Amino acid sequence: MAQVKKPYPVTELLAAVRSEILAERRSDASDAQKVSLSGGRLVSSGAERFEYLFVCKKWYESLDGAPVLVRASHSRGPWSAAEAFRMPDGTVRLVVAESLGQSVRNAQIRKDDSAGLVVLAERLESAGEADSPIRTESAGWIVGQGNPQTARDSDPSRWVANWQALRLNSRQRLAIEQALASQILFLWGPPGTGKTDVVGYIVEGSFRQGHNVLFLAPTKVAVDQALERICDLLSAQEGFAEGLVQRAGDIEVPSLRERYGEYVDAAQITARVSAQLDEALTGATQTLKDIRALVALHDDVTSLVEQLATARAAHIDARTRRAAAEQDALRAEAHAAQLRLKISRLGTPGGLFAKRKEGQLADLGNELLQADAAIRGARQLNVDAGRRASQAAQQIDELSGRLAGARARLAGVPARTVLAQQADATQKLLDELDQQRKKIQDTVRARCRVMGATVAKAVQSRKLLDRVDVVVIDEAGMVDLPSAWLVAGLAGKRVVVAGDFRQLPAVTKGEGDRKATEEERAHSRQWASRDAFHAAGLVAESGAVRQDPRLVSLDTQYRMREPICDVVNVVAYPDAPLTTGRDDRSRIPFNSLVDSPVILVDTSKQRIAGPDNKANTVNEAVVHELVRGLQYEDVLPGRKWDSVELSQGERATDRLAVIAPYRAQVKALQGSLKYRFGEEYEGLVDTIHRFQGSQRPIVIFDTAVGAGKDPGFFYRGSGLSSHTCRLLNVASAAPRTT
């Protein structure tokens, strides 16, 4: 059978994904959480399945049953895929596809971050097949293929409520108008330009056009923040409470959970609309449990009867053996007495027949010894039989008592055969109710018209919506190219790609894999690390944006004070500077410490050398003192302030964020500021990557530079497409005030 040729660029994307898998499994993963195992031994093996048992002193529940990677401790070789399970006795069962040998002295396991990539490769493999959900035409738009329609809707008020009254600038309106009339739109939304609002109106308009919308973003937080805005726009729509908008996966943002969780969480919707069925399921489950308990009681009585019969037989046997032993002992004693009498009558050997008497006495002595041994043996058998008889008697008493109690509990209970029939009928009812429950879940899913999910969830799920007309990819600059191509292919009519290609890119490893060839790294750069904007030809090699009818750029920002925006323009948007659409007033209480929108603290003269570039104790101390000063100025809550008494907007995380490029510095700052505030605030200190898309009035950006011999990976690049530009852009654009 001839092999079907894969559509372009599936082969290229597959190679890139496989390089990512290899890079992940060849990585030392120095920052990953690892579990040490010892004393491994092979317990079973089969076709591509080898099962080992290991001793484990410290375990993480998140690894139980999850895909993991394993390799020998102190090894520098590649990791192997495995599954790990914690056993009740504390040992760890590890299942691998390749043998590790009969025994493994020491090994390490960690979470398999390549597991999602494996699924991505499998989905890409199916592209072009008849039953594949990937529509290669719309997927191709991501890499500049085809001639997708671009136009402007002449009357968006048909689709977007209160269109004329909305506070939107001309570029924002253009983006919405073009999205609602085109097959493809690339929306460039730098920080603070209202991209989330624009995307929300695009989703609203697409919904009112009769389309089913799949909204995707690379992180749970990004999904939730946008989905909350979409819910604001559609909450008054008929059917909203029954699952019109849904969230696939766990909700991360508390405000979405609190405001709309019961309406967008499929499990809660299903539970609400099927409460009566759930009650029937609960009742039937309890009934079956009770019936099985009664069946078990019948079985217990039967078992006790059998045990009692066995104990009585053992008692009778022991008594019989004891009586026999007593008779044997008496016979042996009588025989011994006769022998002693004969010995006495023979007397002392002498005279003519002395030799003959001596022989007779020797024979009688030997026979007497045997008789005495027989006596002792019979007496021991008597004792043993008596002990067994006593034990059997005690067992009979115990079993009789238990049997009497069990029979008392069975009084009025139907026969076992009747109970078995009832159990079968109840199980059948449960199966029917469960099928009805599943149908309700399918019905709830069918009611969904707007589904929000992470890109990874969409890649790994076979079916999130019964029909997908529009795919919206938000924060697309952070989505790797193979994933963007695949999810765009789920769209039947329209694709909207929104994001900022000058903020942080997708996290990929192939282009930096030192064990790969330069050709392989170059392939990874082109087919894994690039975002959709670059792949579609909208961004030049230099990083400059190209004018294109598929692209709409938002150019007015409303987040930052103008001096902060000026910094951001110099760093990331020199060719397309943002204008400021807000006033210059500060949103924090007046204070003498932070009296300017932009403050640079130069710590270079106080440098303390460290082991690497990822942590800086001088910067940590400076941040600590800055926070203490802001507490003194009543800008931030003090160490002993009761956080419960603080109103919205006054909490530490309402006003401040401290961000750094490396986890090591983040960890050090978290410890320092936990002492400063008296408790640890989630989200107060984080990496720049995790903070992308968020904002605070005050942001302290700790570069962490200075302790190591060189600035580090994030500061090596130059140009508008470099990691350096993107990192500094995210850090600089996060503050609203200072």
UniProtKB/TrEMBL annotation:
<feature type="domain" description="DNA2/NAM7 helicase-like C-terminal">
    <location>
        <begin position="551"/>
        <end position="704"/>
    </location>
</feature>
<dbReference type="Pfam" id="PF13087">
    <property type="entry name" value="AAA_12"/>
</dbReference>
<dbReference type="Pfam" id="PF13086">
    <property type="entry name" value="AAA_11"/>
</dbReference>
<keyword id="KW-0378">Hydrolase</keyword>
<dbReference type="InterPro" id="IPR027417">
    <property type="entry name" value="P-loop_NTPase"/>
</dbReference>
<keyword id="KW-0175">Coiled coil</keyword>
<keyword id="KW-0547">Nucleotide-binding</keyword>
<comment type="similarity">
    <text>Belongs to the DNA2/NAM7 helicase family.</text>
</comment>
<dbReference type="InterPro" id="IPR041677">
    <property type="entry name" value="DNA2/NAM7_AAA_11"/>
</dbReference>
<keyword id="KW-0067">ATP-binding</keyword>
<dbReference type="InterPro" id="IPR050534">
    <property type="entry name" value="Coronavir_polyprotein_1ab"/>
</dbReference>
<dbReference type="InterPro" id="IPR041679">
    <property type="entry name" value="DNA2/NAM7-like_C"/>
</dbReference>
<feature type="coiled-coil region">
    <location>
        <begin position="389"/>
        <end position="443"/>
    </location>
</feature>
<keyword id="KW-0347">Helicase</keyword>
<protein>
    <recommendedName>
        <fullName>AAA+ ATPase domain-containing protein</fullName>
    </recommendedName>
</protein>
<feature type="domain" description="DNA2/NAM7 helicase helicase">
    <location>
        <begin position="168"/>
        <end position="509"/>
    </location>
</feature>
